[in-house]
Design brief:
Blueprint: H1 6-15, H2 31-36, H3 43-58, H4 62-75, H5 78-90, H6 95-113, H7 120-128, H8 133-141, H9 148-170, H10 175-198, H11 209-218
Helix pairs in contact: 3-9, 3-10, 4-5, 4-8, 4-9, 4-10, 6-8, 9-10
């Protein structure tokens, strides 16, 4: 396996950092509703919930989209990029989850504008798409000598850090509990990424009805810290 070059590795670290100004920290993706409903009550239930979400939602959906969006950006396949972006939007089953992928996608576009990483015609095309988070993330990666698998690992770990922080704040949990959950996710993310890489358009899916109901309930939840 060819190791990442320094610039590619540093960019992946920057993109997966909680300091990236895209607002990922402000969403719980149903965690807050699950706590309110009593489905998540401690470290064990939080870890199980997040690991299930990685396997049943992220791996089968956004990670698979990302795996296909990177090569589509490399060849600038506009039709393919539009199909992938539309699929992401169509699978958001509540207004909050759709807001999340659109807001984070737009925020990354603003970050891209201050960098010298992508061609202007590709950035203009992305902006015209009403960009989602996976499509924006893929655009940043595509011009560089970075493998698709490494891109997915960074994306998944960024998601993991944000979702674990949401659980720490809402359950609540201590930092040691959060680190133990992250350690578990670190073991499970590679398998989720490998699975995502095998999925075709016909295999890719977004079917998590329990999560969809919780996310919809969050819109009228009495007390909320997060935007989803």
């Amino acid at each position: 396996m060819t190791p990442l070059n320094s610039s590619g590795l540093l960019l992946l670290m920057q993109l997966s950092s909680p300091a990236l100004p895209v607002g990922g920290f402000s969403y719980s993706e149903g965690i807050e509703s699950a706590v309110d409903a009593g489905w998540i009550v401690d470290e064990s239930s939080a870890s199980e919930w997040i690991c299930d979400q990685l396997k049943l939602s992220l791996s089968r959906g956004d990670l698979s989209v990302l795996a296909q969006a990177v090569p589509a950006w490399k060849t600038f396949d506009k039709k393919r990029l539009m199909e992938l972006n539309d699929w992401v939007l169509s699978t958001r089953e509540s207004s909050e989850t759709r807001l999340q992928t659109e807001q984070m996608g737009r925020s990354l576009v603003e970050w891209i504008k201050n960098q010298e990483l992508v061609e202007h015609d590709k950035l203009d095309f992305l902006i015209a798409l009403s960009p989602t988070w996976p499509l924006s993330f893929a655009l940043v990666i595509a011009p560089l000598d970075i493998g698709v698998k490494d891109c997915l690992l960074a994306y998944a770990f960024s998601w993991a850090e944000n979702i674990v922080q949401a659980s720490i704040k809402t359950v609540p949990l201590g930092q040691k509990s959060g680190q133990r959950i992250l350690a578990t996710l670190r073991q499970k993310i590679p398998e989720a990424v490998e699975y995502a890489l095998t999925l075709s358009d016909n295999d890719r899916q977004s079917f998590t009805p329990g999560l969809a109901i919780l996310c919809a309930n969050h819109e009228t939840q009495y007390s909320r810290l997060f935007r989803s």
